[in-house]
TrEMBL record:
<dbReference type="InterPro" id="IPR036397">
    <property type="entry name" value="RNaseH_sf"/>
</dbReference>
<dbReference type="InterPro" id="IPR009057">
    <property type="entry name" value="Homeodomain-like_sf"/>
</dbReference>
<protein>
    <submittedName>
        <fullName>Checkpoint HUS1 isoform X5</fullName>
    </submittedName>
</protein>
<dbReference type="GO" id="GO:0003676">
    <property type="term" value="F:nucleic acid binding"/>
</dbReference>
Length: 216
């Protein structure tokens, strides 16, 4: 939960000073604690009893003297559990961009790139390669359509069904399971996929390069 309270004097205390304030509190009143702290630190701006009250309340509530994260601050964690979740998400949707993933997960794009780079994964990047004129629109066909791409119409779905059929323990387990799923694809299945691809190409030619999703 974000801390929306107004900035007070307690935020000017260092971590060590906050801990020291808690340690010297005992059963004394907040006014006495503030006076004691100010006497021990005559060269810094004095704190008030209200500052002590807020600090002790924070410690009782959270077990910490640190400030809560600011609103809107993205996560920068890159622990094992987060890495597994990120890699699993990109494995499930390979064309998802880091920008979209960041917006959906709250994990910063820097952390996402670090996780992907560490595990040698490459995020999808949309790039404009050439300019299209209005006259080109009628000639556009689906050469890179998922309907004509074996990775899309077969492999990704097959891998997801196998990989997500077990509970993934960590990143290494995820990688191993993906490799095993790929290795388990038989030559007969690969032949069937090739035949399906030829069938889809023929349908595309028959329909003058138009999309064929509605007739598959």
């Amino acid at each position: 939960m974000c801390n929306r309270s107004a900035i007070d004097m307690s935020k000017r205390l260092t971590r060590e000073e906050r801990i020291k304030t808690v340690l010297i509190s005992g059963e004394r009143s907040n006014r006495v604690i503030a006076a004691d702290f100010n006497a021990r630190h005559p060269t810094r701006p004095p704190i008030s009893h209200a500052t002590v009250s807020k600090l002790l309340a924070k410690f009782r509530e959270t077990g910490s003297v640190l400030d809560l994260p600011k609103c809107g601050r993205m996560k920068t964690v890159t622990n094992e559990e987060t890495s597994v979740a990120v890699l699993a998400s990109f494995s499930k949707s390979p064309q998802r961009s880091t920008r979209r993933m960041s917006l959906e997960s709250g994990i910063s794009r820097t952390s996402l790139r670090r996780i992907l780079a560490t595990h040698k994964w490459h995020p999808y990047k949309l790039q404009l390669l050439q300019h299209l004129n209005e006259d080109d629109l009628g000639a556009l066909g689906p050469p890179r359509s998922p309907d004509l791409t074996p990775l899309d119409f077969y492999l990704w779905g097959h891998l997801k069904a196998i990989v997500y059929g077990v509970k993934i323990r960590d990143v290494q387990h995820l990688k191993l399971w993906i490799l095993e799923a790929c290795a388990g694809i038989s030559p007969a299945v690969l032949l069937s996929v090739c035949e399906e691809w030829e069938k889809r190409v023929a349908l595309t030619i028959q329909h003058n390069g138009q999309h064929i999703e509605h007739i598959l």
